[in-house]
C-alpha cells in the first residue's frame, strides 16, 4: 500500500518504521524529526498526500491536526482515508472527519494506548471512530502497528474512548497514591498494602500493573526514580481533554475535574513536569491534611 505519514516524533517515528519494514511504501513529512528507517522524505504534507491510499497523522494537538488536515484533504485523492492517531479533542476529530467526508475521503480517529514501547514493538491498542468501510481499509495497517484495534463507533468515538479511559486512569492513580500515603501514616507496610489491595476490591491497573510505590509490585517507573513512562504532563493533557469534552457534552465529572486540578498543580507549581504520572505518591507523602 502507498502510505503517507505526518508527525514522525516519539510515537509516529517507530510506527512509520514498522509499516515500512512490513513492505509498504511510506512517504513521510515532519517539521523537525528525522526520517525513520525505510521512510522516504517528502517536501510538504501535501506532497505526502498525493497518490497515498492512507495518510496517517501523529501530531501534538487538535489545533495542529486541524491545520495539517486542511492541507492534506485538499491534496488527497477521492476514496483515500485520512487516519489520525494523535490524542486530540473530540470536537477536532469530528470537524476533520466532516471536512474529509465532504471531499469524498474516508476518515478515522484512531488514538492509541501503549506508549513509545508499544509503538516500537508494534503492540499498540487502537481505539477507532469512523465508518466501517474506512476501518476495514486501514485495519491491515493497525495489525502491523498494534496488537488490537477496537472499532468504537462513528467519528469521534475513538477519542471519546481514549479520554474516558485516561480520566479513569488519572483518578485511580491519585486514589492509589493517596491511599499509600495514608497507609504510611497508619504504620501499614507498603508490601502488605499491595498484597491485600491487588487481590481485593481496591485493585486497578494503577495498583496491580503500574504500582506507584518503589520496590512493590511489578517493575514500574517508581523503580526507576519516576522517570516516565507516562509523563505527568501527558496525563494532564488527556485530563484537560476529558474536561473539555465534559463541558461540551454537559456531563458531570467531579472526580475528573479534581484529578485535572491536582495534576495541574503537580505539573505547573510543583515538581511534576518531566516526571512519571505515578510520582503523585512522593507528592502525597509528607503532606498534611489541608
Ligand atoms: P512528539 O512531540 O514526539 O511528536 C510529534 C511530532 O509532530 C514532532 O516530531 C513534530 O515535529 C511534528 N509536528 C508538529 N507540527 C507539525 C506540522 N505542522 N507538520 C508536520 N509535523 C509536525 O509527540 P509523541 O509523543 O510522538 O505524541 C504524538 C501524539 O501521540 C500526541 O497526540 C500524544 O498525546 C499521543 N500519544 C503519545 C504517547 C506517548 O507515550 N508519547 C502515548 C499515547 C498517545
TrEMBL record:
GO terms for molecular function: 3-hydroxyisobutyrate dehydrogenase activity; NAD binding; NADP binding. Signal peptide: none annotated. PROSITE patterns: 3_HYDROXYISOBUT_DH (PS00895). Its EC number is 1.1.1.31. Pathway: Amino-acid degradation; L-valine degradation. The keyword NAD applies. Residues 2-153 form the 6-phosphogluconate dehydrogenase NADP-binding domain. Keywords: Branched-chain amino acid catabolism, NAD, Oxidoreductase. This is 3-hydroxyisobutyrate dehydrogenase. The active site is at residue 162. The keyword Plastid does not apply. GO terms for biological process: L-valine catabolic process.
Amino acid at each position: 500500500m502507498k502510505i503517507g505519514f505526518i508527525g514522525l516524533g516519539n510515537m509516529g517515528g517507530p510506527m512509520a518504521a514498522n509499516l515500512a519494514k512490513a513492505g509498504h511504501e511510506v512517504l513521510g513529512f515532519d517539521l523537525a524529526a528525522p526520517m525513520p528507517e525505510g521512510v522516504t522524505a517528502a517536501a510538504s504534507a501535501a506532497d505526502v498526500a498525493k497518490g497515498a491510499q492512507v495518510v496517517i497523522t501523529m501530531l501534538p494537538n487538535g489545533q495542529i491536526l486541524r491545520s495539517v488536515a486542511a492541507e492534506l484533504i485538499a491534496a488527497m485523492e477521492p476514496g483515500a482515508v485520512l487516519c489520525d492517531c494523535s490524542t486530540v479533542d473530540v470536537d477536532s476529530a469530528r470537524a476533520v472527519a466532516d471536512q474529509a467526508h465532504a471531499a469524498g475521503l474516508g476518515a478515522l480517529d484512531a488514538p492509541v494506548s501503549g506508549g513509545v514501547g508499544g509503538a516500537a514493538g508494534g503492540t499498540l491498542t487502537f481505539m477507532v471512530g469512523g465508518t466501517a468501510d474506512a476501518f476495514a481499509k486501514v485495519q491491515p495497517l493497525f495489525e502491523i502497528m498494534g496488537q488490537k484495534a477496537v472499532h468504537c463507533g462513528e467519528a469521534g468515538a475513538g477519542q471519546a474512548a481514549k479520554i474516558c479511559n485516561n480520566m479513569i486512569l488519572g483518578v485511580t492513580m491519585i486514589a492509589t497514591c493517596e491511599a499509600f500515603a495514608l497507609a504510611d501514616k497508619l504504620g501499614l507496610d507498603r508490601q502488605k498494602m499491595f498484597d491485600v489491595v491487588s487481590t481485593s476490591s481496591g485493585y486497578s491497573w494503577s495498583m496491580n500493573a503500574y504500582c506507584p510505590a518503589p520496590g512493590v509490585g511489578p517493575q514500574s517507573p517508581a523503580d526507576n526514580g519516576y522517570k516516565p513512562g507516562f509523563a505527568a504532563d501527558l496525563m494532564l493533557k488527556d485530563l484537560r481533554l476529558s474536561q473539555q469534552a465534559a463541558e461540551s457534552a454537559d456531563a458531570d465529572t467531579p472526580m475528573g475535574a479534581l484529578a485535572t486540578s491536582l495534576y495541574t498543580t503537580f505539573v505547573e507549581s510543583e515538581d511534576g513536569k518531566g516526571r512519571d504520572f505515578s510520582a503523585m505518591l512522593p507528592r502525597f507523602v509528607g503532606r498534611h491534611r489541608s
